[in-house]
Amino acid sequence: MFERPESGERAILVHLDVGSTAEPDEREEFRLLAAAAGAVLVGTLGGSRATPDPRLFIGTGKAQELKDLVAATGAELAIFNHPLSPAQERNLERLLQCRVVDRAGLILDIFAQRARSFEGKLQVELAQLRHMSTRLVRGWTHLERQKGGIGLRGPGETQLETDRRLLAKRIALLNRRLERIESQRAQGRRARAKAELPVVSLVGYTNAGKSTLFNRLTDAGVLEADQLFATLDPTLRRLALPDGGRALLADTVGFVSELPHELVAAFRATLEEARNAALLLHVVDSAAPHRARLIADVEVVLGEIGCTEIPRLEVWNKIDLTDGETPRLERDAQGTPVRVWLSASRGDGMDLLRQAIAELTGRARVRRLLHLSPADGRLRAWIYDHATILADRPAETGGWEMDLLISPVDLDRLAARDPGLEARLRASA
User: Using 50, 70 and 90 to split pLDDT, how confident is the model at 426?
Assistant: First the structure.
């Protein structure tokens, strides 16, 4: 019989180079993840292997070295920066006599601590239960026995079967609740589409500065923190664009390499904001030493959630932490904005970002003067709904003289409503 050890916070971090040598920033990210979960670091173990050991992942020799390190430091937890199979976790816990957590379990624990909204808590619990359902037999061999005692003896189900059944029921309940929330979100998206407000979604690696940028653009006041996964719950705010245009800006959960599939599945309602966006702002930490790897990891997750075809604009943030970088807007050969360099913490380059968003969402506006006759009252009401009115004066010959800002798309719609209207439209001086 094997009883799982009690949990604790004194942890040893284990990272092996399997097949190739890891970058230094990957080890640092692992340390930051453990710190974000509340672990107290008491030791580390490294090494290299050509392939993982099927029984202990790290091999017999390294496992014995890890056991000695656990005994010497009094560690209560061994955290692996690798995905472990249920059998490997069980075998390691038997040998080490302490809890063993892999990378997916570590990230799930951070999400469980950070979730604040009702939806976020449901999503995290669902991800944890899905993760747990594959690992029930890992350290609980005593659960394979049938329940005993007065009134419980007989050909009943084993405790393991009971737990599996209860897990399945709870997972089904959480899925139904999240489906109702997703239905409400879908209604909100339909309303926004009806209002013709494009959604611009912030995506990027965790701790790239998305929430700081979100607050700078919208004055939303969401949590900003120099830590991994500071934001879990999505927030939407109205964004004012140059020349009077508007859009909706969505702040989403940050990505990380090897993001557990359970989390991607559980956060589908949250990530739906990115999947249905008109434009993705890929926020990049320009001061990160290995930003190319971080960009590639984000692209992998965007591919998993079906966002590969959505237009995107790279936002290279934190230029205040780099030498020689200044706010600027880069364009491709066709003149389309592709990259903005800025500092969200200082506010440098915000006007360039707003201009790029306006261009890419079609919300860049042009100024026009228009004379409407007294019979154009219905058309005048439509203009008030779709344009920014700078001046509206009664005309000496009857009707109105209007000075307005309007997007090119709405300008075409306006001209289509009345074939003779285009001749009355003229550019403002």
Answer: low
